[in-house]
Amino acid sequence: MGILKIDRRGSKVLFPRMLMLLILGICVPMEVMGKAGNASAASSRPNSVNIGALFTYDSVIGRAARPAIAAAVEDVNSDSSILSGTKLNVIYHDTNCSGFLGTMEALQLMEDDVVAAVGPQSSGIAHVISHVVNELRVPLLSFAATDPTLSALQYPYFIRTTQNDHFQMYAIADLVTYFGWREVIAIFVDDDYGRNGISVLGDALAKKRAKISYKAAFTPGAPNSAINELLVGVNLMESRVYVVHVNPDSGLSIFSVAKSLKMMTGGYVWIATDWLPSILDSIEPADLDKMNLLQGVVALRHYTPDTRLKKKFMSRWNNLKYKSAGPAGFNSYALYAYDSVWLAARALDVYFNDGGSVSYSKDPKLLNTNGSSLNLQSLRVFDGGWQFLQTLTGMNFTGVSGQVQFDSDKNLVHPAYEILNIVGTGTRRVGYWSNFSGLSMVSPETLYEKLPNISASNQHLYTIIWPGETSNVPRGWVFPYNGKSLRIAVPNRVSYQEFVSKDNNPPGVRGYCIDVFEAALNLLPYPVPRTYILYGNGQRNPEYSDLVNAVAENNYDAAVGDVTITTNRTKIVDFTQPYMESGLFVVAAVKEQKSSPWSFLKPFTFQMWCVTGAFFLFVGAVVWILEHRMNQDFRGPPRQQLVTIFWFSFSTMFFSHRENTVSALGRLVLIIWLFVVLIINSSYTASLTSILTVQQLTSRIEGIDSLISSNEPIGIQDGSFAWKYLIDELNVAESRIVKLKNQDEYFVALQRGPRNGGVAAIVDELPYIELFLSNTNCKFRTVGQEFTKSGWGFAFQRDSPLAVDLSTAILQLSENGDLQKIHNKWLTHTECSMQIGQGEDSRLSLKSFWGLFLICGIACFIALTMFFCKVLLQYRRFVPEGGVEEEVEEIEPARSRRSLRSSSFKDLIDFVDRKEAEIKEILKRKTSDSKRQASSSADDRASTPT
């Protein structure tokens, strides 16, 4: 019959187009779905109701599904709480692994007036049959069709009672990301099931910044010779991570061929979708030959909780009926098939309770068949199909596979998978995946009680034993064994050839960059065949941006040389870890700065000079106040006292003051001030020494800002990225930029200057500038600060694994000192460390000393406060001799309060001006007189008669 052999979920089957149009009515609108049927509805529940079962009997999934479906029908009919008074009948049809025959069987099933169909297992057949059930309004409950595209709105009557491959592909993407791989090769069967699943995998990997580097597809039922040819080609590619998404009935042939090609050894990664556990679970007992083919393979299996219902079902599995047709090994699809029948039964019960009936009507679109001999008039539309569909999608119960409930996309809620590792004679579970929390070592139902967490730090798996019996995570790629060498572009420089240049000896290039690259390659654990290709004509430096673009366009595999890592370049290629620090500097001609007669003023800023002078006077005045009452050196006529203040203040600068301090407060202030003076003197001396003894160089250009605002020509190295940076980032006019080919042109352009056809300054990267300054005996200098930060790296095509491995090797070179040794070999030069000018920034300012001044000021304030408190206490105890105050009050009783206050303030000033010894003598005498008067008063009171 020309029937093609297919897998459990679909195949690419051809049959006449006209037959498809007549049978399926794909292009026919579905307005009939809303029309009322002609048949009358039953007034009560029917005595029996029919459901269909579509699957391939002789298949891994079919052999497990048939006894499960039969057991479910038996259990439903024996349960009085479900479909009371109505018997559930199941009508089986074998799709025979053929899309065409599957369609014919589906049409025959529809003639039996079924209310729902359980199946099919093939995604390809499900696509075709979905058009039939859409027209006839019969819900299709598929327990094994996992193609993600079947969830489209195009198929409203398709209900998936198993897990959607959409989630399985995202689980694989998380697994790939977990181990740090960036590329995978997809090996899949070229039908709806395979193509659509791998398409979702590509989308899932893209969200993780990974990709499918190659799609290796083969036809359903392909012979081993075709698979062998496919795997030989795959083995020549870089990626060693293979995702196998095929059919369970023929999938093991992939691993059989891979074993013969020695592709099941160390360094390979094999990830299989749920088809592989379906086979292994069905084999009783385990087949050692098959297990030997699969050592180290990682596979995903549908996760079903170990509930009481599941355990009970599995315990009676061996005693189920309909197992005589062949070995019926258990797998997870048996659980989904069992729950599919129960879903239909429970939904029918609700449907009948809501007043639904089982009635059918003729489809007017099928009455006119244009004389066709096909008996399409026998197909009838289920009148209550839409209501029954809504009932099905709204069901929520616990079955043997777990919770049976659908989300808005008609997918089962809580999708989850077990991550299995095939080792020895069985499988070991290394973790779980769920869309709730990603990869974990804890069962999903436990995590549902917590908040969702899919962060990278929360992803965990047990150790996996990989092919080759190793627990070390494979790198995931190798250099391809296709006989091709790595095409490495090397700049053909005409200047600064210490970094990279042409060489007449193998390998044809030499220089600092080449030595670093070769040393890094020697640290890799695998050989890298390579061919160096010079880029450029050798008459001028090549444009490095064009070189990077050539790598991005696959003209070269890599670019090795003094290639600067810039933002725009990282968008099109991948760079390694920088092996040389770089950044743009400004180089300008300088001249020696002659000493000025006023150089002694340069160490301090104007503000610093003013504050320092003010503090000299302030401290002198404070010491004078504190010493005036008790120190004869600070007394005398006003003119002499003023001279003393000035002399004492500035003589402390040289520690040559002749006046002695006798008060404790005065000595405290003086000690602190002398410390401040010591610091200021030392700083001034050091700065002035530097100014007068170190050669000072100056330049009209002070940095990039003054260079941009000068409107003078700017020199850059030919081929440097500085040209684009100055124009695009700093808005420098293109007419101002002069490209210079070599160091000689650098020298001449700077010597001439902008007025004689040269340039005002040169903008270039630090490594070039260091060599240039060294080769010109430090005749020129850098001015200003570095205004970009970057580095040199090796450029590779996007997502090249070599970029990652070489980055690690470069870090290792840096850590063990080899990178510095290579630097010393090629780039030894004289350091030009002489200073350019000494501008305002190098002068000592107030901000460097304000802490000292603050301490001194606080000490002066405290000393003055204590001094005046002491004086006021003495003044309150002081009573002027001769009764001056009493006489004043008797003679001038009408004097205003203001005059009295003025007199009191004058008396206070006079009191403060007196010597301390004199005040103490008066207070002592006054105290004695008071005691004497008190004694006389007491004697008088004693001699008075009573």
TrEMBL record:
<dbReference type="Pfam" id="PF00060">
    <property type="entry name" value="Lig_chan"/>
</dbReference>
<feature type="transmembrane region" description="Helical">
    <location>
        <begin position="668"/>
        <end position="692"/>
    </location>
</feature>
<dbReference type="InterPro" id="IPR044440">
    <property type="entry name" value="GABAb_receptor_plant_PBP1"/>
</dbReference>
<comment type="similarity">
    <text>Belongs to the glutamate-gated ion channel (TC 1.A.10.1) family.</text>
</comment>
<feature type="disulfide bond">
    <location>
        <begin position="778"/>
        <end position="832"/>
    </location>
</feature>
<feature type="transmembrane region" description="Helical">
    <location>
        <begin position="849"/>
        <end position="868"/>
    </location>
</feature>
<dbReference type="InterPro" id="IPR001828">
    <property type="entry name" value="ANF_lig-bd_rcpt"/>
</dbReference>
<dbReference type="Pfam" id="PF01094">
    <property type="entry name" value="ANF_receptor"/>
</dbReference>
<dbReference type="InterPro" id="IPR001320">
    <property type="entry name" value="Iontro_rcpt_C"/>
</dbReference>
<keyword id="KW-0675">Receptor</keyword>
<keyword id="KW-0325">Glycoprotein</keyword>
<dbReference type="Pfam" id="PF10613">
    <property type="entry name" value="Lig_chan-Glu_bd"/>
</dbReference>
<dbReference type="InterPro" id="IPR028082">
    <property type="entry name" value="Peripla_BP_I"/>
</dbReference>
<feature type="domain" description="Ionotropic glutamate receptor C-terminal">
    <location>
        <begin position="487"/>
        <end position="829"/>
    </location>
</feature>
<keyword id="KW-1071">Ligand-gated ion channel</keyword>
<keyword id="KW-0406">Ion transport</keyword>
<dbReference type="InterPro" id="IPR015683">
    <property type="entry name" value="Ionotropic_Glu_rcpt"/>
</dbReference>
<dbReference type="InterPro" id="IPR017103">
    <property type="entry name" value="Iontropic_Glu_rcpt_pln"/>
</dbReference>
<keyword id="KW-0472">Membrane</keyword>
<dbReference type="GO" id="GO:1901701">
    <property type="term" value="P:cellular response to oxygen-containing compound"/>
</dbReference>
<keyword id="KW-0812">Transmembrane</keyword>
<dbReference type="GO" id="GO:0007165">
    <property type="term" value="P:signal transduction"/>
</dbReference>
<dbReference type="GO" id="GO:0016020">
    <property type="term" value="C:membrane"/>
</dbReference>
<keyword id="KW-0813">Transport</keyword>
<feature type="transmembrane region" description="Helical">
    <location>
        <begin position="606"/>
        <end position="626"/>
    </location>
</feature>
<dbReference type="GO" id="GO:0009611">
    <property type="term" value="P:response to wounding"/>
</dbReference>
<keyword id="KW-1015">Disulfide bond</keyword>
<dbReference type="InterPro" id="IPR019594">
    <property type="entry name" value="Glu/Gly-bd"/>
</dbReference>
<feature type="region of interest" description="Disordered">
    <location>
        <begin position="925"/>
        <end position="946"/>
    </location>
</feature>
<keyword id="KW-0732">Signal</keyword>
<feature type="signal peptide">
    <location>
        <begin position="1"/>
        <end position="34"/>
    </location>
</feature>
<keyword id="KW-0407">Ion channel</keyword>
<comment type="function">
    <text>Glutamate-gated receptor that probably acts as non-selective cation channel.</text>
</comment>
<keyword id="KW-1133">Transmembrane helix</keyword>
<dbReference type="GO" id="GO:0015276">
    <property type="term" value="F:ligand-gated monoatomic ion channel activity"/>
</dbReference>
<protein>
    <recommendedName>
        <fullName>Glutamate receptor</fullName>
    </recommendedName>
</protein>
